[in-house]
DNA sequence: CCCATTATAGTCGGTGTTGACTATTCGGTC
DNA sequence: GACCGAATAGTCAACACCGACTATAATGGG
């Protein structure tokens, strides 16, 4: 996925880091936004290295386990810029696993479907509350924007489920 | 992915079909909603067969290539019902590749970022128009609901991008 | 009569991702 | 002084999914 390369290049553009730092940052700051695991990060770092977009030097302090410090190259910065523009233009059409349930909903008694949708709504509310309580992120203004994005779509989902439940209710009464 | 098993079980619950029919239906009716490819469908059908949730009989007509007709079993129907309830309750938290770009947006001159966002907006509009023109689906009312779902979220995305562009514009003027 | 298309069945290798695992050193706690 | 957790580095097998490929028979257009 290109967005993962973009993320790593972006992190290294801000400053060179060693692997542990990179994975720490992702785990602590981006966990819900872009879940990328350690092993994936290492794979992609290798690939970026082979492509000459990042370089790596070993940094040994005393007897400590050595750190491998990754930096972005000039070619990497060019690529980064292009990837970033592509990403901003991109409309990533998602396919929703939930739609399968929607599609087949009429195979279930309405009462059970409604119960399931109520549960879903509860989960959405929980998630909305969680994100609304997240404090502002100082270092990267982008983090706030991404969270706002998340929230907007969660709320749209909530509204849609509410509308759907309304429709089902009137249909039952007919 | 469980939703793919659910889809196949649901299709076979409505009626037994042979592999070609299944893939045809998905390709013609669900292409944008749940993009599942032939090879994946066969893999999952095999797995469902091993688990005893579907059965298969060969149906040879004359000299034609034989058809393998898949049917749902009783155990399959039980599983289907459970999977459907799970799916309706599910809140599938998506991770948005676009958020990587949002996150790193401040690495790009504002003019370029705005241009990219305008392009993105254009793509959203195209997609909205496309879906708004899709006629009602007679067989499965669920298809209409799923499309409505899609549209709701697309419009939420559009609104969010518009808001973001508004923010950027005022920020530039400060 | 030939050829392209459609109806029918898959298979198989490659890609991206992850979870679980393995090492080593240092700085504290019991 | 023994032991645990955090800091540091990865590796590797397994999984889901897909794209490209292979086969055969009937059918219809030229």
Explain this structure to me?
Two copies of one chain form a homodimer. Chain A has 174 residues and is mainly alpha-helical. Chain A folds into two domains: 3-89, Orthogonal Bundle (Arc Repressor Mutant, subunit A), CATH 1.10.10; 98-173. Helix content of chain A is 67%, strand content 8%. Chain A is built from seven helices and three strands, in the order H-E-H-H-E-E-H-H-H-H. Chain A has a three-stranded antiparallel sheet with strand order 1-3-2. In chain A, a hairpin with a 7-residue loop joins strand 2 and strand 3. In chain A, helix 1 crosses helix 4 and helix 6 (110-133) runs antiparallel to helix 7. The radius of gyration of chain A is 22 Å and the shape is elongated. Chain A starts with a helix and ends with a helix. The model of chain A has no long low-confidence stretch (mean pLDDT 92). Chain A binds a DNA duplex (30 and 30 nucleotides) through helix 2 and helix 3.
